[in-house]
Amino acid sequence: MFRKKKEKVELVEKKSQGLWRKCEKCEQIIYNQEWEQRYRVCPNCNYHFRLTAMERIQLLIDPMTFEEQDREIYPVDALSFKYLDTTYKEKLKEAQEKTGQNDGIIIGKGNIYEYPIEIGVMDFEFLGGSMGSVVGEKIKKAVFYAIKYKIPLVLVATSGGARMQEGMLSLMQMAKTSAAVAKLEQYKLPFIMILTNPTTGGVSASFAMLGDIIMAEPGALVGFAGPRVIEQTIKQKLPAGFQSSEFQLEHGFVDMIVERKNLKQTLFNILDYLYDW
Amino acid sequence: MVLEFEKGIHEIEEKIKALKEKDKFPDFDKQLELLESKYHAEIEKVYSELNPWKITQIARHLDRPTFLDYINMIGTDFVEIHGDRNIGDDQAMITGMMKIDEEKFFIIGQQKGKTMEEAKKRNFGMPNPEGYKKALRVMKMADKFNRPILTFINTQGAFPGIEAEERGQGEAIARNLREMAKLRVPVVATVIGEGGSGGALGIGVANMVFMLKYSVYSVISPEGCASILWRDSTKASEAAKALKITADDLLKLGLIDGIIDEPLGAAHRYPEQTAQNLKNKLLETTKELARMSRNKLMDRRIDKFLNMGKFSEKPLK
Is residue A221 included in any domain, yes or no? Predict the structure, then answer.
């Protein structure tokens, strides 16, 4: 029972001011209204602009059905991490002010074409989508909610990797989120991963590569080691398109590349194959 | 190889060596005794002044015992198992079976290589995806035949290269993290030198995780962290301190389960004593774990990692 897309999604917080904007990628002048209508995709080069976690939820979840869970989990500066003239604590406060979020992920329950799913969405605006203890804990909680309500789990990744300022606590979130996926497997509930630009480092070496189905947005950077680190190691320039979603598809590490405008419908179609609500 | 802060120790060591090569003379014993007491005093002084960056240098010392050295020192009847049955046989990751005091184990570890020639062959201990896949194949075999698994971590990290990305370095590590969580046999991991990020963790999801006293385990190398956060890779010493990468710090944070002692002067000076401590700890721990049922071993391991992390129910002040 594949449903037809019913509603046009309105991304709440209109970023467009004025009639025109310049594409971050191709630098063409594009018409703001068209850009919004295309869910913030450049009509000229198909560049998928970043969405905040809340915008992504608006895109994927039926209006008025999203219930956020465990908002009250806050990060701590467990190592009292200081560098240059700043501290992790200060950086956290800045990021909290900038995004209105407590940390780099939102989890909750919501409907996709009237059927409930558990969803977790990372936010690149919060310290580069880095994974620290809060992100790990909320992914664990999302897994537990999926198990509790017997519903599918969808996670949307965007991350530069582990959050250095939490030291080894952040590395262990890789093991934690992967152990959570191992737990979810026991209940035979679908786990769909959506990779968005960028998904690298520790996140790409843990839960993000463990979905039953892995979808990626076009042109996203997806890879383990950062391109600069690789270039320094092998002392040569990387070919164009290296570590793109398309590269990962070609090498067998993602199942499909899905344009943002088709994302909700495709996600629903896949869930429908894997799961009977 | 002599570390800058060990120069004083090294000088006395050289003097002792030179003296011992001489024929005995009337004052010989007295002089030797004097030198040896100076030597111990110097070691004590230097080792009481260690900091995380100095410990990192000890952990990376070229004379520090490698995985193969420990196999020789603590095990017998080692049988190497080769290849991931797909791409090849990653020389940076060694897998196999060995006995310790007649107890049978499956063993997995990264091998850095001591000479330039061996280091090249071993890709400086940085595994490719096929290394993680080989490790997983061997771990699943251990699970099938119900034998405990010992892993030995010593790597700067998983190799950052073109082929590694093409063959899915991230996926290979991710799969190991999930599959190791599900093993139903005792798994004990020990950081014997450098525990470098995801490349280390890829064989590190264990019931018990130990570190040798002068080893380090970090989410990113101090140099890498310094170049990103300090925008200056020469600030590695500060980054090493901030990251909390020593055995003592990680035990306090509850991220490892114990520290295996090394004599003052460290494993590169006292390999045999260190190996003995390692052996005792591994035997004692696996014996203890063997009392648990197969399901309990898995459940405990999963729960242990599910509980890692520090956060609060209250906002930052």
Answer: yes
